[in-house]
Amino acid sequence: MIKRWHSSSRVTRSATGGGGGSSSRSQEEEDGDEVPPGHHEVFVGRSRRRYLVGSGLVDHPLFQVLVERTGGSDAGTVVGCEVVLFDHLLWMLENADPQPESLDELVDFYSY
């Protein structure tokens, strides 16, 4: 679903999953909006695209390992992953629960 914000240059893509605060949004421009309750600000890729990711996804073991591999940042949670792959990762976590035995392989695939 694509929603238009105040300006036509600001696009928010919203994917709603199976509940539990698992929705995520990507903002092409940071517009100073506060982080809604139940979401975490995540910066993805070399471009540091800003995402608002639901707590249900942030707490997922695959997401946690991916963040740990990237390392910390003063700017918040950073994921070292191409943006298009991160979009796929979010879709996968919202729609199909990856099996624990495949987590290492998936982290290797998604990380730089």
UniProtKB/TrEMBL annotation:
Pfam families: Auxin_inducible (PF02519). It comes from the Eukaryota. InterPro entries: SAUR_fam (IPR003676). One of its GO terms (biological process) is response to auxin. Residues 1-41 are annotated as: Disordered. PANTHER family: EXPRESSED PROTEIN, SMALL AUXIN-UP RNA-RELATED. Belongs to the ARG7 family. This is SAUR family protein.
